[in-house]
Amino acid sequence: MPGPGSIYDTEMLKDLDGWDEETLTEDMEIAFRMFENGAKLRNSTNAYVETPSPETLKGLFRQRMRWYAGYIENSISYLKLWFNPKFGNLGMIVIPFNLVWTLLISFMGAHLLYRIFDSLIQFYQTYQLAGFIDLGFSFTIQSISTFHLFYGLLAVGGIGLLYLSIRTAEEKLKLWERKVNYASFLLLYGPLYAAMWLAAVVAIIRGEKNLW
Known about the structure:
The chain has helices spanning about 10-15, 25-35, 55-75, 90-130, 145-170, 180-205. By secondary structure, the protein is mainly α. It has one domain (about 55-205). Helix 3 packs across helix 6 (about 180-205), helix 4 (about 90-130) crosses helix 6 and helix 5 (about 145-170) crosses helix 6 (about 180-205). The protein is globular and about 75 Å long.
C-alpha cells in the first residue's frame, strides 16, 4: 500500500513489532507482513493524498530505484505468498506478474542500450571505412523484428495508460495545452522507467543498501 495514503490497525501493528527499519520500502514490507498474518487490505479509489515529489531528475531516479529495489527485496523475502491461493490475488497474480514485468522491462532496457551502443559502433566503423556516415532511413516489412512489435505494443499501452490516468484523475484531455507533457510521457518516460528498473536490479545484485 502507498505509504502516504495508508491507515493501519494500531494493535496489529504493535503485535507484529512495528516497522522493519532495515527494509528499503517499509510501507510495502508491513503490508506484506500484515497480509501474511491475516489482515485485510482495503483500498479507496476516490481518496486524495498529497505527497512531495523530488525536484531533480537525480532525486527522482534515486527515489524510484529505492522503490523498485525495495519491491524486489520484499518479494524475495515473502516467497511464501507466491502462487498461494490463500493470499488471493496478491499471491496468485500481483506478485508473479510484477516479477515477470520486472524481468521483461530490465531485459528490454538492457537490449535498448545494447542496440544504441551497437549502432554507434557501426556508424564509427562505416566512417572509418568509407569516410562518411549514412544517416538514411529505410523501412521494409523485412526490417520489422519481434522487438519492434514489442516496442509498438508498449507505445500503445503507454497511450492507454495515459488515457486511463487522465480519466481516473477526473481531468480533461487537453492535447494542445499539455502537448509537451503528454509527448514527454510517451517518448521519455518509458526508457527512463526501464533504466530505473535496470538500475534497481543491478543494485540488488551488487548488494547495495544506501539507496536513499
